[in-house]
Amino acid sequence: MSIEAKTVDESRVETVHIVRPNHLNGANRLFGGILMQWIDEVAGIVAKRHSMCNVTTASVDNLTFLQGAYQNEMVVIKGKMTWVGSSSMEVCVDTYVENHLGARNRINNAHFMMVALDENDRPVKVPRLILQTEDEHLAWAHGEERRRIRIQRKKDKLDGI
Ligand SMILES: CC(C)(COP(=O)(O)OP(=O)(O)OC[C@H]1O[C@@H](n2cnc3c(N)ncnc32)[C@H](O)[C@@H]1OP(=O)(O)O)[C@@H](O)C(=O)NCCC(=O)NCCS
Q1: Cut 0.90: pTM above it
Q2: CATH number of the domain enclosing 130
């Protein structure tokens, strides 16, 4: 039996990494490519939990590096579903550095568009998103606006603009 709708909490993900020497770039900060891999994985797990399907990353936007992270720091990555279309899902991923007292400083934010795929690798319908809080309604409204922009951007790319 297929599930028709799921809450945001049902697919929420939080992961934690310690910044090791092999994660650093030449400037001794966390290498952006490593962080991108970690956040892409989080977005993928959120989307898999919501859709219960294989998923792929269609696009990433608003990927903003606000601050660096350094060796031995604890990096916390939180992903949540913000908007759902027919086969596409928007996942918001926030990254924080957490200090010894548990205080978190946000260092990165990104929005991933994930698409659920069937066994033939074609887009497949996903459950609706049940919005339970004011914040979730607000995030949905912003997601609608971002979708409008993304559709235009994809059209421009296909047109070679
Ligand atoms: C993502 C992909 C499956 C979409 O396939 P497609 O043939 O364009 O399918 P559709 O046009 O039916 O789009 C399917 C959904 O994805 C959305 N979508 C497609 N491209 C998108 C993009 N660039 N940005 C945001 N959403 C996108 C569509 O709006 C649609 O959403 P909806 O079903 O909720 O209405 C296909 O482009 C693909 O496989 N891309 C490569 C993905 C990949 O390999 N990622 C890993 C990178 S290493």
Answers
A1: yes
A2: 3.10.129.10
